[in-house]
Amino acid sequence: MGRKWNNIKEKKASKDANTSRVFAKFGIEIYVAAKKGEPDPESNQALKFLLERAKTYNVPKAIIDRAIEKARGNSEESYSELRYEGFGPSGSMIIVDTLTNNVNRTVADVRSAFNKNGGSVGVNGSVSYMFSPTAVIGVEEKTSDEILELLMEADVYVRDVTEEDDSIIIYAEPDQFHAVQTVLKQAGITEFTVAELTMLAQNYVTLSPEELTKFEKLIDTLEDLEDVQRVYHNVDFLE
Protein backbone atom coordinates (compact mmCIF):
# COMPACT_ATOMS: atom_id res chain seq x y z
CA MET A 1 0.00 0.00 0.00
CA GLY A 2 3.06 2.22 0.23
CA ARG A 3 3.03 4.60 3.12
CA LYS A 4 1.31 3.66 6.37
CA TRP A 5 -1.82 5.64 7.17
CA ASN A 6 -0.96 5.74 10.89
CA ASN A 7 2.24 7.62 10.06
CA ILE A 8 0.23 10.22 8.15
CA LYS A 9 -2.29 10.68 10.95
CA GLU A 10 0.44 10.76 13.64
CA LYS A 11 1.97 13.81 11.97
CA LYS A 12 -1.41 15.56 11.78
CA ALA A 13 -2.36 14.60 15.32
CA SER A 14 0.76 16.25 16.72
CA LYS A 15 -0.38 19.53 15.17
CA ASP A 16 -4.14 19.27 15.66
CA ALA A 17 -4.24 17.98 19.24
CA ASN A 18 -6.12 20.18 21.71
CA THR A 19 -6.75 22.97 19.22
CA SER A 20 -10.03 24.60 18.29
CA ARG A 21 -8.87 25.14 14.70
CA VAL A 22 -9.76 21.66 13.51
CA PHE A 23 -13.13 21.81 15.31
CA ALA A 24 -14.06 25.10 13.63
CA LYS A 25 -13.27 23.64 10.22
CA PHE A 26 -15.42 20.61 10.96
CA GLY A 27 -18.24 22.96 11.91
CA ILE A 28 -18.12 24.64 8.51
CA GLU A 29 -17.89 21.34 6.63
CA ILE A 30 -20.83 19.85 8.55
CA TYR A 31 -22.91 23.00 7.95
CA VAL A 32 -22.20 22.85 4.20
CA ALA A 33 -23.08 19.13 3.97
CA ALA A 34 -26.28 19.62 5.98
CA LYS A 35 -27.25 22.66 3.92
CA LYS A 36 -26.76 20.83 0.61
CA GLY A 37 -29.05 17.96 1.55
CA GLU A 38 -31.28 17.05 4.45
CA PRO A 39 -29.91 17.99 7.89
CA ASP A 40 -30.53 14.36 8.90
CA PRO A 41 -27.54 11.98 8.61
CA GLU A 42 -29.82 9.01 7.96
CA SER A 43 -30.98 10.56 4.68
CA ASN A 44 -27.80 12.52 3.89
CA GLN A 45 -24.83 10.23 3.23
CA ALA A 46 -22.32 13.07 2.98
CA LEU A 47 -23.37 14.35 6.39
CA LYS A 48 -23.36 10.84 7.83
CA PHE A 49 -19.78 10.35 6.66
CA LEU A 50 -18.69 13.66 8.17
CA LEU A 51 -20.18 12.78 11.54
CA GLU A 52 -18.32 9.46 11.52
CA ARG A 53 -15.10 11.30 10.67
CA ALA A 54 -15.74 13.93 13.34
CA LYS A 55 -15.93 11.21 16.00
CA THR A 56 -12.37 10.11 15.24
CA TYR A 57 -11.18 13.69 15.86
CA ASN A 58 -13.22 14.04 19.07
CA VAL A 59 -15.18 17.01 17.75
CA PRO A 60 -17.47 18.23 20.57
CA LYS A 61 -21.16 17.41 20.15
CA ALA A 62 -22.03 21.08 20.74
CA ILE A 63 -20.12 22.11 17.60
CA ILE A 64 -21.82 19.41 15.53
CA ASP A 65 -25.29 20.28 16.81
CA ARG A 66 -24.73 24.01 16.25
CA ALA A 67 -23.65 23.45 12.64
CA ILE A 68 -26.68 21.26 11.88
CA GLU A 69 -29.08 23.68 13.56
CA LYS A 70 -27.59 26.53 11.54
CA ALA A 71 -28.28 24.55 8.36
CA ARG A 72 -31.86 23.93 9.50
CA GLY A 73 -32.39 27.63 10.04
CA ASN A 74 -32.60 30.46 7.59
CA SER A 75 -28.88 31.10 7.20
CA GLU A 76 -28.03 32.28 3.71
CA GLU A 77 -24.29 31.86 4.23
CA SER A 78 -22.85 29.93 1.30
CA TYR A 79 -19.49 28.32 0.67
CA SER A 80 -17.65 27.33 -2.51
CA GLU A 81 -15.54 24.19 -2.74
CA LEU A 82 -12.21 24.89 -4.42
CA ARG A 83 -9.20 22.65 -5.00
CA TYR A 84 -5.66 23.90 -5.59
CA GLU A 85 -2.74 21.83 -6.83
CA GLY A 86 0.87 22.84 -6.41
CA PHE A 87 4.49 21.99 -5.81
CA GLY A 88 6.79 22.28 -2.83
CA PRO A 89 10.58 21.87 -2.51
CA SER A 90 12.21 19.47 -4.98
CA GLY A 91 9.00 19.04 -6.95
CA SER A 92 7.03 17.57 -4.04
CA MET A 93 3.30 17.51 -4.77
CA ILE A 94 0.48 19.08 -2.79
CA ILE A 95 -3.33 19.17 -3.08
CA VAL A 96 -5.29 21.75 -1.07
CA ASP A 97 -9.06 21.45 -0.59
CA THR A 98 -10.91 24.54 0.62
CA LEU A 99 -14.37 25.70 1.62
CA THR A 100 -14.75 29.44 1.37
CA ASN A 101 -17.29 32.25 1.53
CA ASN A 102 -14.74 34.62 -0.03
CA VAL A 103 -13.07 33.19 -3.12
CA ASN A 104 -10.76 36.17 -3.67
CA ARG A 105 -9.40 35.88 -0.14
CA THR A 106 -8.79 32.15 -0.48
CA VAL A 107 -7.01 32.44 -3.83
CA ALA A 108 -4.72 35.15 -2.47
CA ASP A 109 -4.01 33.30 0.79
CA VAL A 110 -3.19 29.97 -0.88
CA ARG A 111 -0.95 31.57 -3.50
CA SER A 112 0.84 33.59 -0.83
CA ALA A 113 1.43 30.47 1.29
CA PHE A 114 3.04 28.67 -1.65
CA ASN A 115 5.07 31.64 -2.88
CA LYS A 116 6.46 32.59 0.53
CA ASN A 117 7.52 29.04 1.36
CA GLY A 118 9.39 27.91 -1.73
CA GLY A 119 6.42 26.46 -3.57
CA SER A 120 4.26 27.27 -6.57
CA VAL A 121 0.62 26.80 -7.53
CA GLY A 122 0.05 24.61 -10.59
CA VAL A 123 -2.83 24.26 -12.99
CA ASN A 124 -5.76 21.90 -12.43
CA GLY A 125 -4.65 18.33 -13.01
CA SER A 126 -0.94 19.02 -12.64
CA VAL A 127 -0.74 17.03 -9.40
CA SER A 128 -3.98 15.14 -8.77
CA TYR A 129 -3.23 12.50 -11.42
CA MET A 130 -0.53 11.18 -9.06
CA PHE A 131 -3.03 10.65 -6.21
CA SER A 132 -5.80 8.09 -5.73
CA PRO A 133 -9.11 8.88 -3.96
CA THR A 134 -9.26 6.35 -1.14
CA ALA A 135 -11.51 5.36 1.74
CA VAL A 136 -9.51 4.60 4.88
CA ILE A 137 -11.16 2.93 7.88
CA GLY A 138 -9.34 1.86 11.04
CA VAL A 139 -10.44 -0.45 13.86
CA GLU A 140 -8.78 -1.92 16.93
CA GLU A 141 -10.91 -5.03 17.21
CA LYS A 142 -10.24 -8.36 15.48
CA THR A 143 -7.29 -9.32 13.27
CA SER A 144 -6.70 -8.39 9.65
CA ASP A 145 -7.65 -11.93 8.60
CA GLU A 146 -10.92 -11.73 10.54
CA ILE A 147 -11.77 -8.35 9.01
CA LEU A 148 -10.97 -9.60 5.52
CA GLU A 149 -13.15 -12.68 6.05
CA LEU A 150 -16.08 -10.53 7.20
CA LEU A 151 -15.79 -8.33 4.12
CA MET A 152 -15.44 -11.24 1.71
CA GLU A 153 -18.48 -13.02 3.18
CA ALA A 154 -20.49 -9.85 2.56
CA ASP A 155 -19.12 -9.53 -1.01
CA VAL A 156 -17.48 -6.20 -0.14
CA TYR A 157 -14.13 -5.94 -1.87
CA VAL A 158 -11.34 -3.65 -0.69
CA ARG A 159 -7.85 -2.76 -1.88
CA ASP A 160 -6.00 -3.91 1.22
CA VAL A 161 -6.32 -4.74 4.91
CA THR A 162 -3.15 -4.17 6.93
CA GLU A 163 -1.97 -4.23 10.52
CA GLU A 164 -0.41 -0.87 11.39
CA ASP A 165 0.78 -0.39 14.95
CA ASP A 166 -2.25 -1.14 17.14
CA SER A 167 -4.87 -0.76 14.43
CA ILE A 168 -6.27 -2.69 11.49
CA ILE A 169 -6.43 -0.31 8.52
CA ILE A 170 -8.77 -0.97 5.60
CA TYR A 171 -8.12 0.71 2.24
CA ALA A 172 -11.04 0.74 -0.20
CA GLU A 173 -12.59 2.56 -3.13
CA PRO A 174 -14.44 5.69 -1.95
CA ASP A 175 -17.83 4.30 -2.99
CA GLN A 176 -17.27 1.32 -0.67
CA PHE A 177 -16.89 3.45 2.47
CA HIS A 178 -20.42 2.93 3.78
CA ALA A 179 -20.52 -0.72 2.72
CA VAL A 180 -17.36 -1.45 4.72
CA GLN A 181 -18.67 0.37 7.78
CA THR A 182 -22.01 -1.44 7.56
CA VAL A 183 -20.29 -4.84 7.58
CA LEU A 184 -18.12 -3.86 10.54
CA LYS A 185 -21.06 -2.47 12.52
CA GLN A 186 -23.07 -5.64 11.89
CA ALA A 187 -20.14 -7.54 13.39
CA GLY A 188 -20.37 -5.42 16.54
CA ILE A 189 -17.62 -2.91 15.74
CA THR A 190 -18.88 0.59 16.46
CA GLU A 191 -15.71 2.57 17.20
CA PHE A 192 -13.30 3.57 14.43
CA THR A 193 -9.79 4.96 14.86
CA VAL A 194 -9.91 6.31 11.30
CA ALA A 195 -12.86 7.16 9.04
CA GLU A 196 -11.57 9.17 6.09
CA LEU A 197 -12.15 9.81 2.43
CA THR A 198 -8.71 10.99 1.41
CA MET A 199 -6.22 11.35 -1.43
CA LEU A 200 -3.25 9.00 -1.15
CA ALA A 201 -0.17 9.56 -3.27
CA GLN A 202 0.75 6.70 -5.59
CA ASN A 203 4.41 7.22 -4.71
CA TYR A 204 6.08 9.05 -1.82
CA VAL A 205 9.32 11.01 -1.86
CA THR A 206 11.93 11.66 0.80
CA LEU A 207 13.36 15.15 1.17
CA SER A 208 16.70 16.23 2.62
CA PRO A 209 16.54 17.66 6.18
CA GLU A 210 16.80 21.21 4.84
CA GLU A 211 14.10 20.65 2.21
CA LEU A 212 11.88 18.89 4.76
CA THR A 213 12.05 21.89 7.10
CA LYS A 214 10.88 24.17 4.27
CA PHE A 215 8.18 21.71 3.28
CA GLU A 216 6.81 21.40 6.81
CA LYS A 217 6.60 25.19 7.08
CA LEU A 218 4.65 25.31 3.80
CA ILE A 219 2.21 22.61 4.95
CA ASP A 220 1.75 24.25 8.35
CA THR A 221 1.07 27.62 6.70
CA LEU A 222 -1.53 26.08 4.38
CA GLU A 223 -3.27 24.14 7.15
CA ASP A 224 -3.47 27.26 9.31
CA LEU A 225 -5.47 29.14 6.66
CA GLU A 226 -9.09 29.47 7.78
CA ASP A 227 -10.52 28.35 4.42
CA VAL A 228 -8.34 25.24 4.04
CA GLN A 229 -10.07 22.02 5.02
CA ARG A 230 -7.52 19.38 4.02
CA VAL A 231 -4.02 19.18 2.61
CA TYR A 232 -2.66 16.08 0.86
CA HIS A 233 0.93 15.54 -0.24
CA ASN A 234 3.48 12.92 -1.29
CA VAL A 235 6.28 13.53 1.22
CA ASP A 236 7.38 11.03 3.85
CA PHE A 237 7.72 12.64 7.25
CA LEU A 238 8.48 9.35 8.99
CA GLU A 239 10.72 6.58 7.79
Automatic annotation (TrEMBL):
Keywords: Cytoplasm, DNA-binding, Transcription, Transcription regulation. The keyword Cytoplasm applies. It is found in: Cytoplasm. Residues 3-73 form the TACO1/YebC-like N-terminal domain. Belongs to the TACO1 family. YeeN subfamily. The keyword Cell membrane does not apply. This is Probable transcriptional regulatory protein PAECIP111802_01216. Pfam families: TACO1_YebC_N, Transcrip_reg. PANTHER family: TRANSLATIONAL ACTIVATOR OF CYTOCHROME C OXIDASE 1 (PTHR12532:SF0). Residues 79-235 form the TACO1/YebC-like second and third domain.
